[in-house]
Amino acid sequence: MLRLVKTSMDQEQQVHAFLKEWRERDERIVPNAVDGEASDFETYVKAIRAREVRAENVGWVPSTTYWLTDGEELLGAANIRHELNEQLLSFGGHIGYGIKPSARGRGLATKQLALALEKAKSLGIERALITCDRTNVASKQVILRNGGVPDTPFIETDGTVVERFWIELKG
User: Fold this and answer.
1) Closest of 126, 90, 129, 101 to residue 113, by C-alpha
2) DSSP 162
3) What are phi and psi of 152, to 5 degrees?
């Protein structure tokens, strides 16, 4: 059964395998909240968990990171930002998510985003912003399948077009 779980000390081997797979494929790890040096695993876990509360003068909003699991295997990760700042309103939104390369193409991202939206709702988020690069057709489909309503795209300084979608969580 698929579920989202927070980062914990008993996931060390699974996290190392997850990160290794992305790095061997030379892909940017998504969400970037899980991309870090994990050789000192206790520090890695503490850093991820510390982001759940507001920190003064750090430059980020509080966020909670979850791993998508099916049993023991980590299939993906989702990072839920509890609020938006100006940057996240343009790019990033409330939820960043990714499925590891070997687990793609099985509909897991759609299920992962649905589970992350439930978590966002439990945090009091009534309307979630989800973004993706225009060229990421798979991610756009995941967002649309979860009720995403297109909003005005954002164009980065390098010309990259970021698609923006809102999903209502009330009710």
Assistant:
1) 129
2) E
3) -60, 130
Tell the residue number behind the tokens 């979860």, with chain if given.
146
- DSSP notation for 114-141: HHHHHHHHHTT-SEEEEEEETT-HHHHH
pTM of the model: 0.94
Q: How many other C-beta atoms can be found within 10 angstroms of the C-beta atom of residue 37?
A: 10
Give 69's contacts (C-beta < 8 A, 6+ positions apart).
2, 3, 4, 5, 75
Give the model confidence (pLDDT) of 45-92 as tens digits. Answer: 999 999 998 766 567 799 999 999 998 899 999 999 999 998 899 889
Token pair 């797979």 is found at: 21
* Cβ atoms 67, 5 nearer than 8 A: yes
